[in-house]
Amino acid sequence: MIPSKNTNTVYFSELLQSDKRFSESCSQLKSILEKHGIIYKSIKATTDIWCRDYMPIQIEKGAFVQFRYEPSYLLDDLEHQSDPKVVCRANNINPKFSKINLDGGNIINWTDQAIITDRVFNENPEYSDRKKLISEIEKLLEVEVIVIPQINIDITGHADGLVRFVNGYTILGNNRDQEFKYWMRGINKILKSHGLDYIDIPIFNYKSKKYPESALGCYINYLEVKNLIVLPIFELEGNLDKEIVDQFKHIFPDRIIEPINFNEIGFYGGLLNCTSWTILE
Q1: Which domain holds residue 41?
Q2: What is the DSSP letter of 10?
């Protein structure tokens, strides 16, 4: 598979750019990408802004796998469930289609490994043999699949709000001491069994009655393309913005770290990785 750092083009849903609620964030993001010479394009025929979830997974240059996109959390909100076949056809993408139900936001990858949460088992109840399901995903993605626990109260159960790869032997993720004990035990077991190091990234705990599904406070939901990391900061009382920016500069000394206030989008449940699709063209 192609790690995010080896991609060179960013796509966004046309809806993200046309929605006036998000105009300031989109303008700032485009300015950052233009500053660093990153190509960005629009995706046609979408019905929501979270394009990471319904776009295909790139295996190698020109080769894509498209999983079925029928997440349980959209069963009562089908008008916002983009149809991957329609989207791919409208954007001249010809992926290999799979019947496995799996969101793109639940796939975090390196060259030879991919991390997904155990939400994949909930979304594919027809597979009584879990090992068979994972084996089929491994064949499609051509990598080893590592299954980590989901956060049970997270409506999506995605991996991209939990962990990201730094390199082939290190991942970073939410501070384990701030997560549920069952998740900390589960991730520690996975780290040990796969010989992976883990860097704890503090979470800024933000709660809002107005926006109960807010993603604000999750620093690891960043956009990564080429040598650029666009990092969400929140600029709210009690934030950890400076600490996290400094930590990322230390973790990625050879990368450009560009912070951005993405709150007007984050209030609705996702951040930079959720709203972008990065590929190698």
Answers
A1: 4-279
A2: E
Structure tokens at 120: 């994949």
Using alpha carbons, list the distances in angstroms from residue 116 to 23, 102, 163, 184, 210.
Answer: 32, 9, 10, 16, 30
Listed in sequence order, the residues at least 6 apart from 199 whose beta carbon sits closer than 8 Å to its beta carbon are: 166, 170, 171, 172, 173, 251
**Residue 77 exposure: Cα atoms within 13 Å on the Cβ side:** 9
Say how many domains are in the chain: 1
Domain holding 85: CATH number? 3.75.10.10
Note whether 199 and 170 are within 8 A (CB): yes
Q: Output b/e per residue, 125-164; b: 16+ Cβ within 10 A.
A: eebeeeeebbebbeebbebebbbbbbbeeeebbbbbbbbb
Percent of all residues in the chain with a pLDDT value above 90, rounded to a whole number: 95
Contact 137, 100 (CB under 8 A): yes
Residues 62-114 have pLDDT tens digits of 999 999 999 999 998 888 899 999 999 999 999 999 999 999 999 999 999 99
Three-state secondary-structure class, residue 73: helix
Give the span between the Cα atoms of 191 and 203, in whole angstroms: 20
Whether residue 239 contacts residue 19, with contact meaning beta carbons closer than 8 Å, is answered with: no
Q: How large is the average pLDDT for residues 155-171?
A: 97
pLDDT single digits (tens) 182-237:
999 999 999 999 999 999 999 999 888 899 889 999 999 999 999 999 999 999 99
Distance CA 35, CA 122 (A): 42
CA angle 61, 98, 71 (to 5 degrees): 110
